[in-house]
Design brief:
This protein is α+β, with helices and mostly antiparallel strands. It has 2 domains: 2-133; 143-235, 2-Layer Sandwich (Alpha-Beta Plaits). It has 10 helices and 4 strands; from the N terminus they run H-H-H-H-H-H-H-E-H-E-E-E-H-H. Strands 1-4-2-3 form a 4-stranded antiparallel sheet. Helix 1 (2-26) packs parallel to helix 5 (93-110) and helix 2 (31-43) crosses helix 4 (59-84). The N and C termini lie far apart (56 Å). The mean pLDDT is 80.
């Protein structure tokens, strides 16, 4: 019976992983990233990646994360207790089975398309009503459509942008917004369109994805090649 208890409880943990993954997906997170972060928080492994910022920066995801951390700590205690009492006969298999059944039912309900759409709408409404714009991650604020794109363009020494202004490079009718120019530790916002670009500048832009990738193809390609040669350059 003790082994059965442990197997059922592990099943409950796996169901909780799937439920929380589904909830994270409803907040706009991609499924592979959601599942990885759920497992990381549940096991308290402390595995950190840039993707973890997607959890920390989002108010609803932070709540789910706090639940997972606490549930993970509780589950570890339960499993250790079950193993230590493996020779005892008094295991509440019936109650545990009912709990597992309820969780399976909840997971099935969460998989229903119409309910997913409704829950996603409710979560979005809660964000709009209870949280300020600056509390939300960039993805939820700027990337509303598939064509929306947010990018940092790294200007290398041989770039055609050097010595020119963004006013000369980006036409008024083009769907590109200049957020600011990062030069060292300084963010240039005032008259950024008229500022002459220097080698080493980073242009923080937002607009149509295909247009941005086409117009700044040389700079993007140069930076990608630099990263391949030296992965540490990714964060520079």
């Amino acid at each position: 019976m003790g082994y059965l208890f442990i197997c059922i409880y592990i099943g409950i943990i796996l169901i909780v992983v799937e439920i929380c993954t589904a909830l994270f997906v409803l907040t706009g997170l991609e499924k592979p990233i959601a599942r990885f972060q759920v497992v990381s928080m549940l096991t308290s492994t402390g595995f950190t990646t840039g993707e973890s910022e997607l959890i920390i920066a989002h108010p609803i995801r932070r709540r789910l994360g706090a639940f997972l951390i606490m549930f993970g700590a509780f589950s570890l205690a339960v499993i250790i207790s079950a193993i230590s009492g493996i020779l005892q006969k008094n295991f509440h298999i019936t109650e545990l089975g009912v709990t597992a059944g309820v969780l399976v039912l909840l997971l099935v309900i969460l998989k229903l398309p119409f309910l997913q759409k409704r829950l996603s709408s409710i979560l979005q409404e809660e964000l709009e009503e209870n949280y300020k714009l600056e509390d939300l991650p960039i993805k939820d604020v700027l990337l509303q459509n598939d064509d929306d794109y947010f990018v940092e363009i790294h200007v290398h020494e041989a770039s055609d942008l050097v010595g020119n202004t963004l006013e000369e490079t980006i036409k008024p009718e083009e769907d590109i917004n200049i957020l600011f120019i990062k030069r060292g530790d300084v963010a240039i916002r005032h008259d950024r369109q008229k500022e002459k670009i220097q080698a080493g500048d980073q242009l923080v832009l937002y607009g149509d994805k295909s247009l941005l990738q086409k117009k700044f193809e040389a700079e993007i390609k140069e930076h990608e090649e630099k990263i391949e040669e030296n992965p540490e350059a990714k964060n520079k």
